[in-house]
Amino acid sequence: MSVVTLSRVTKEFKGGTVALEDIDLEIEQGEFISLIGPSGCGKSTLLRIIGDLIEPSRGSIAVNGKPARQARRDHDYGIVFQDAVLYDWRTVSKNIALPLELAGWSRDRRRERIEQMLELVELQGFADHHPWQLSGGMQQRVAIARALSFDPALLLMDEPFGALDEMTRERLNAELLRIWEASKSTVVFVTHSIAEAVFLSTRVVVMSPRPGRISRTIPIDLSQPRGVETREDPRFFELATEVREALHLGGGHDAPLAATGLSEGAA
Amino acid sequence: MSMSLVGRRARDWFPALLVLVAFVGVWEGIVKGAHVQRFLLPAPTAIWTSFTASQGQLWHEGWYTFQEALGGFAIGSGAGILLAVVVARWTLLGNGLMPYAIAANAVPIIAFAPITNTWFNPLTKTAHMMIAAVICFFPVFVNVVRGLRSVKPAQIELMRSYAVGELAVFRLVRVPTALPFLFTALRVASVLAMIGAIVSEYYGGSLDTLGANILQDASLFQFEKAWAEIVIACVLGIGFFLGVVVVERLATRWQPRLEIVGA
Q: Does the interface ipTM go beyond 0.90?
């Protein structure tokens, strides 16, 4: 069964900017999809349209077989942003429990789930810490735990590791794969890191800007489970090259570079 | 552990205590040594003698004025918070009112004291409470509006993903965000309330009040007693301020403590 079905989704902002044009995409249960593309290709907008945080100008979206609005009301997805977006006045455990509180879970059920979640993201012992006492990577793990706490069918992630250093990012990538396998959820992941997209995904959706379109969809056939050795697999480099070329052909920010010889800063 | 904590606290406070003792000592020395006239500045020991002689009356006056300040603080801050909530909710109304509120915040409201004393009987607490209330209102109003509006957009977006209503967003996000702003304003308001109450008493108040007594004692050459009353006003004012700080600490325990008291 497909978890997300987008057909002919178009988003035009006030003033006439076409952020997305005729997006068709079907995401199956258990997939890990990365949306990759240069800034301005509408990948974050697309993620928000799936989450019913932005309304499309045209086209239809189904999540879990229902309209996006209904899916949002039914808490069918969890979302993680580039910033952890933790509520400073809540402890780690209370941040994780927030969606559970809103969904009316009993205190005992909440406590049990918080413990499982802390274990899942390896933050046992930090339950009573406040967000400012945690590092950026730890904060993002809390945000992931919160997004998964109510067992949503779908996990939406908007450049969740974009603000972290390379080493933390690679560690969290591996951790995210482990969590994805354990929770059996479907993930839509926005990134502009080619390595990250290839390492994580079962399918990479390459987008091009102005107007935002899907220029290519590349299945990633690296074996599961993936680990450090995956990044050294020759197949990993082949796929990364394929994604890179697709980005260039799609008129990404590197395309005019090749054509005009301008420095990257010109993009 | 608690012993070492007490020890550390004592070490932290020791320099401040030393400065106080030195200050009073120098004051006493200068007054005695240079034969400063008592209407200019009485010696601390003389103020202390006057204080002990009429302690009961002084505390009575202080308590009376403090009640006015506290009442004005409660009324003014309460009204400020209420209007701020309304203004933060209805943006258009806010855009219409905010410029005037900010302008009014800069007005020396104490200038209205003689007028309010004609609106209300100055021999009652109400007249002075009103001045204190008006002075407290603006900083609280302006700060709480700012606090309610300084919510991070992503925090609202996350709440929208949970499909919760505006009331829940208000309770779960806006109010906690505004709390530090509110308490910053309340600290200022606590000081302003004491000033407002006492100064408005200068323009006419019953002889139960600190302000009226300071004025009368100064004109009757009872400078030591006037100074003793000023000391009472200081003690109450500082106590009021510290009370607000304590409530703030309890209410916003989650905040990182990088500041010292009053910063």
A: no
